[in-house]
Amino acid sequence: MSRILVVDDEVIISMQIEERLNSMGYDVVGRATSGREAVKKSRELNPDLVLMDIIMPGGMDGIEASRIIKDETEIPVVFLTAYADDENIMRAKTTEPFGYIVKPFQEREIKAAIEVALYNKYVGTKIRQSEQKYHTIMEAANDPILIIDLESQDILEVNRKAEELFGIDYDRFIGINVLQLFPDGKVRENIKVIKRISKDKDVIYENIFILNGKGDEVLVEVSACTTTLLDKAVIIAILRDVTKRELDDWERKLLGELKLILKKAKRLSGIIPICATCKKIRDENDKWIQLEVYIRDNSEADFSHGICPDCRDECFIKHTEHQEH
Fold this sequence. Notes:
elongated; 3 domains; alpha/beta; Beta-Lactamase
């Protein structure tokens, strides 16, 4: 049930309006007899709608009260007045009211005005929520995004990443033609891409050259499609720096190759000359060095010294024979 605040300086009339609203299924949450009281009760009661008389005593009429309510809240105001002169209508229009009903009025007139006002409030809330979600998505994106008027090819919206890529501030960006973002030698080629995007219903992927903020030609991948925004046909284009992506791929490949090279660098291979008697190894400089030194210098292995059981037994036998003699 919609909650309504009735504002009229004539108490009998406001009571009659309340009775009629109740019979139509609305909940009158309060009544006010002045502009100041209307503002106060709007803050306190937070109604779904205010029915506001224009001419009221107390230094603040309904138009001024409506302006304050509009600035502070999202509560729609519908004016009720016996004064339909041009001056009051023009003043009332400046507050962007949701309706204007001239007394005396029929029940169906006030019901229609209330329902239209409540519906417009609902639609306005949904639009604001959609805009907020849309701006959140745009600013959270890691890639530059452009929204382009399909007919004029003018820029309608960009995100911060697009500003950074092209080196153009938002205020200067909006309204420029997308062709200004292309190198002179690539304009005709890129126009063909735009035409292809405009004719295809699916998402199109193309590589094109653009001019970045430094004036350099940069190859980017464009993911784009057409859609409708506020009854206007538009192109939504997401850009990705192909050169940077290719560099990232090259860096990953290089790192992989380096890891493999380093892994193989410490692996012994080929024919190794070794002394059959002392087991020393001849290196590339024709020097004979200990086996463990050679292996340690040419691999990731190291040594700890000890005596195996066979050598221990042999040393024990030799030591015993030496003592017996």
